[in-house]
Write a structure and sequence with these properties.
Helices cover 42% and strands 19% of the residues. With 268 residues, the chain is of the alpha/beta class. A hairpin with a 3-residue loop joins strand 5 (191-194) and strand 6 (198-203). Helix 3 (50-66) crosses helix 4. The protein is globular, with a radius of gyration of 23 Å.
Length: 268
């Protein structure tokens, strides 16, 4: 962050725009912190000990080699698989992990110090991250939140085609959580998660009808049940203008008779 002193912010930014630009590009893991970012927060959330952490990376590397796939995609796939039954891998959750990352001494203030040094010498310095790590975790770090990086280029998640059954807690009041979970899993569900006011049951698309029918026969009433696209990560909007714009866009698409379905990863 820049501290604007005697000059106004607008005039300072105008001065910066005329300066030559120096782009500084960094990796993240083993550059700003001593370990892989996945080992700080995520792996602990699945309850791994040191031996299991080693096994996670070994299996990830073997998966990549066996399927001739990129190592980054392999570990991201493993993360999703290991989270099943424990929690959803969302943008918010990954950013929370990023906020817990242990950094080397001096990293938190490095970007501001170097940027100020450049300005003192007539150069606008921009910081970029180019990493095979997780973009959402990097965005959750203190430096990213404070605007240290011009741009972050890193790995990120997309959507899965899934069956999603939502059960309001009021509809199953008196039923034990574990009982409902076992009913869903025995019927063929992939995952069961508890939210504040409901339970979310996910299935493979091909298993959706069987799970739907089994739970219906057991007397379970659904708030909703459909095969849909579930984002593996969500984006949280805080700017009122951004929220208004996306809401306007979604309303326009909803009113368009030619549009059947709209999928987004906005964390409403």
């Amino acid at each position: 962050m820049i501290t604007y002193k005697n000059e106004s912010k607008d005039s300072f930014q105008s001065l910066e725009s005329s300066m030559p630009v120096l782009a500084m590009c960094y990796d993240f893991d083993k550059t700003f912190q001593p370990d892989d970012m996945q080992a700080q927060g995520f792996i602990q959330s699945v309850g791994y000990n040191e031996e299991q952490i080693k096994q996670f990376w070994q299996e990830s590397n073997e998966l990549a080699k066996k399927n001739d796939m990129d190592n980054n995609l392999a570990y991201m796939y493993k993360m999703i698989q290991e989270a099943v039954g424990r929690f959803y891998v969302t943008r918010k959750k990954l950013m929370e992990y990023g906020n817990q990352v242990e950094l080397y001494e001096g990293v938190r203030t490095w970007f501001e110090r170097i940027r100020d040094y450049g300005l003192e010498h007539g150069v606008r310095i921009e910081h970029y991250i180019i990493s095979s790590g997780l973009k959402e975790m990097i965005e959750g770090t203190e430096m990213a939140k404070n605007g240290a990086f011009k741009k972050i280029y890193a790995s990120t998640f997309m959507f899965d085609d899934k069956g999603l059954i939502v059960v309001d807690k009021e509809e199953v009041e008196g039923m034990d959580d574990d009982e409902l979970m076992m009913m869903a899993l025995d019927a063929g569900a992939e995952d069961f998660n508890e939210e504040d006011d409901c339970y979310e049951i996910t299935t493979a698309p091909d298993d959706f009808d069987a799970v739907n029918e089994a739970l219906t026969n057991d007397g379970i009433t659904f708030a909703s049940a459909e095969v849909t696209m579930i984002p593996q990560t969500y984006v949280e909007l805080t700017d009122e203008k951004d929220i208004a714009n996306i809401q306007k866009t979604l309303d326009m698409l909803d009113d368009d008779d030619d549009v059947q379905d709209v999928y987004h990863n906005w964390d409403e």
